[in-house]
Each structure stands twice: as structure tokens, then as C-alpha cells.
């Protein structure tokens, strides 16, 4: 029964992320610490994260998340990092406003 609980929670999280991406059109700050789904693949994410200028990455993340938002986010000014992954370097290199 524990497996069903996990699957249910995972499905609910996935649906919440989808709702977040589809309904939020001007996100400026995003804490990626607990994101466990490829939000960069959801429809509407380009609009949702277009003006993202601050990212908090304080826990263990899938490196594909950095790679995915690299193609969307170009205006990030601040990135808070407490770990080291290869794809985060790609994310930083694509930014035009990072300080």
C-alpha cells in the first residue's frame, strides 16, 4: 500500500506543478529545492518563467532541470547555490543579467 501512497503523492505534485505553470504568468523568484518534476516541459512554461530573475538551488536537484530552464530563462540576475553540478554552469553561461 505504501507504493500507492507514493504514486498518488507524485501524481498530485505533478498536477500542482502543471497548474502552477499554466496559471502563473510572471514569476520573478523560484525556489527549485523541492522541484522533482520537469517543469520546463509543461505547456506555458515559456511565459511563466520568461521574467525569472532569481533562482534558489539549495538542495539536490535533477541536473536535467537546469538544462531544461537554460532554454527558457535568459534574465536571471541572482542564483543561490549550495552544490555543484555540470548543467548549472550551462545555465549561468546563458544569462544576460547575472550579477
What topology does this entry show?
Layout: H1 2-23, E1 29-31, H2 45-48, E2 54-57, H3 63-70, E3 78-81, H4 86-93
Parallel strand pairs: 1-2, 2-3
Descriptive tags:
alpha/beta; 4 helices; single chain; 99 residues; 3-stranded parallel β-sheet
Structure report:
The chain has 99 residues and is α/β, with parallel strands linked by helices. It has one domain (2-93). The protein is 42% helix and 11% strand. It has four helices and three strands. It has helices at 2-23, 45-48, 63-70, 86-93; strands at 29-31, 54-57, 78-81. Strands 1-2-3 form a three-stranded parallel β-sheet, with no helix packed on it. Helix 2 (45-48) links the parallel strand 1 and strand 2. The protein is globular and about 40 Å long. 16% of the residues are buried. The mean pLDDT is 81.
Q: Kindly name the structural category.
A: alpha/beta
Taken as a percent bin, the fraction of beta residues is 5-15%
Q: Cα-atom Rg, whole angstroms?
A: 14 Å
Strand order of the largest sheet: 1-2-3
Oligomer: single chain
Order of helices and strands: HEHEHEH
Number of strands: 3
Nearest-integer average pLDDT: 81
**CA(first)-CA(last) distance:** 49 Å
Treating each run of at least 4 consecutive H or I residues as one helix, how many helices? 4
What's the domain count? 1
> Are there runs of 5+ residues with pLDDT below 50, and where?
none
Shape: globular
- Can you summarize the main beta sheet? 3 strands, parallel
Helix content: 40-55%
